[in-house]
Amino acid sequence: MSTDDQDRISETLNAYLDGELDPAQSARLELRLRGDLALRRHLLELRRVRELVSTSLPDEIPAAIRRQGLSRGARLALQAIAAGVLLVVGVVMGLNWHPAANDDLLALLPKDAQTIRPSHLDLRTPANEVRAIFHVTSDDPEKVRSTLKHVEKLVRAYSGTQKRLHVELVANAEGLNLLRVGKSPAAEQVAYIQKQYGNVKFLACGKTIERVQAEKGVRVKLLPNVEVASSALDQIILRLRQGWTYIRV
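The structure corresponding to this sequence follows.
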């Protein structure tokens, strides 16, 4: 399929998600979706990227993208992300995707965890490595501690195995407080994980830091050994393209 054909299909699917197709066009597309697994997967990819972009990363997305009706430019941006990430998750239009029975990573997570898995792994990712990026968007103490608990659970589960686990935790929106001095509801737990596990990295969203400093006129001071990513979105998309698993508990 040519790039132009792929663009036209993506544009049609985006219009469908926005409710811009007339009833006859929608009916034809839905009929085609029932018999075309690849097309259903493409629709799923676009839908999940929209959800990730519009609900999980509010500090970094222009208002136009957060509205239901998307401009062509916004659509193309999301299309580019979906094309690069090639997501395969969840259930939509009769498409069921289940991890393999021996997929230890997902088996160790709670059933309600939000996960995104790339449908292909970057060739640079060694077969004996497992990579996961946790995303924190809330400073609710219970949610924060639950996320950190599952980070530790994964690390302990893979210790002593032949697979090497790499974990990142990136925080944005209200979740930035997890990594702030004087604001963190779990500073001691973060420090413990940093001390005990050298394969876990904590990153703060640069865009959220800029917003907080501009709006509140305060300097954001981060906990020791916390790094700053240009933005949570950039970091998540980079890791997905490299074969990492996205996790939000």
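The mean pLDDT is 79.
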